[in-house]
Amino acid sequence: MIDINYILKHLDITKTFIIFILSSGIIQISPIKINPYSRFVKWIGDVACASTREDINKLFDKMDRVEVKQAETESKLNTSIAILQTNLSNIEKVNKENEIKNIRRQILLFYEDLRSGEDKPLDSFHSILADIDEYKKYCEENPDFKNGYTANAVEIIRQKALLEMKQ
């Protein structure tokens, strides 16, 4: 066996101090830490969670595909809405044109009634004059609308209306 007393007697103080410092851990020379338990636990965790990780990755892939489909659907909906708005605008324009054509027919019918000698009440004159104003306004705002059918009729209706209002 090693006799410690023998070693201490033959060493000088400097050597003893250096051995003491090195053995006490005050100066450490790059310790290598190997923890076999943490490696084992990590491996077990990886094995146990592998299927869960695969499932999560599959879910993320599905979410990506859903987002792409959603963007495609949103684009199609926006296109459809734009088409519907254009169609609605066209329908409104045609409807307004038909309304104005009906007003024109009423003006011409009122004129024909006056020409044939039919008496009209004052309220009818007020109504037809309002229709004439709406008709003229539409014609001014829509120069492409065919006009000119009512110029003579409007003039005669206005003259008769003035006569009726004076009475």
Describe the protein's architecture and organization.
With 167 residues, the chain is an all-alpha fold. The chain has one domain (4-166). It is built from 5 helices and no strands. It is rod-shaped. The model has no long low-confidence stretch (mean pLDDT 84).
Secondary structure layout plus pairing:
Elements: H1 4-10, H2 13-24, H3 36-115, H4 122-141, H5 151-166
DSSP strand content: under 5%
User: How many alpha or pi helices?
Assistant: 5
Radius of gyration, Cα only, in angstroms? Answer: 51 Å
Low-pLDDT residue spans:
none
Q: Please write the string of helix (H) and strand (E) elements.
A: HHHHH
The global form is rod-shaped
Mean pLDDT comes to: 84
The structure class reads mainly alpha
The rounded distance between the terminal residues' Cα atoms is: 150 Å
Strand tally:
0
Largest sheet: none
Quick structural gist:
The protein is mostly helical and about 170 residues long. Helices cover about 80% and strands about 0% of the residues. The mean pLDDT is about 85.
Keywords:
0% strand, 167 residues, mainly alpha, rod-shaped, 5 helices
